[in-house]
């Protein structure tokens, strides 16, 4: 059983996509990106939602990095809750994802010359600047 809710079988689908905490984090991410989708709970289907048709490969790399950032931060935060008696903070996790991905983009994309505040306020505009 899930060590967090005790109600569902522990699985990657449950922990990363179906558990209430994870759904809150994904919801914050979707609102930030202006994505209106029914979030998939199967990992591959969920990942595939973070790929844009007709987008530059560099832009799709950013979308993929956002997905990996969300999953990794959910994982580390849930471990903190279970092993260190931490408290669930979906907005804190989401904020860490924004920082982590912005740092990755700033280091790996030469054309990424936007500020962190621009990234937080207008991520899609920032992504259009990446070539």
Defining traits:
single chain, 131 residues, mainly alpha, 7 helices, 0% strand, Reverse transcriptase zinc-binding domain-containing protein
Low-confidence stretches: none
Q: What is the terminal-to-terminal distance? A: 45 Å
Number of strands: 0
SSE series: HHHHHHH
Number of domains: 1
Strand content: under 5%
Number of helices: 7
Written description of the protein model:
The chain is mainly α and 131 residues long. It has one domain (12-128). Helix content is 66%, strand content 0%. The protein has helices at 12-18, 20-33, 43-48, 57-84, 90-108, 116-121, 123-128. The longest helix is centred in the middle third of the chain and has 28 residues, at 57-84. It is globular and about 45 Å long. The termini are far apart. It comes from Phaseolus vulgaris. This is Reverse transcriptase zinc-binding domain-containing protein.
């Amino acid at each position: 059983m899930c060590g967090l809710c005790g109600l569902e079988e522990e699985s990657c689908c449950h922990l990363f996509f179906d558990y209430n905490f994870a759904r809150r984090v994904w919801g914050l991410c979707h609102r930030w990106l202006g994505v209106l989708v029914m979030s998939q709970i199967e990992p591959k289907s969920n990942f595939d939602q973070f790929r844009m048709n007709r987008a530059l490969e560099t832009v799709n790399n950013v979308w993929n990095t956002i997905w990996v950032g969300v999953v990794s931060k959910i994982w580390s935060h849930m471990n903190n809750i279970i092993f260190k008696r931490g408290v669930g903070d979906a907005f804190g996790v989401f904020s860490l994802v924004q920082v982590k991905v912005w740092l990755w983009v700033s280091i790996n994309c030469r054309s990424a010359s936007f500020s962190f505040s621009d990234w937080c306020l207008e991520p899609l505009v920032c992504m259009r600047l990446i070539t």
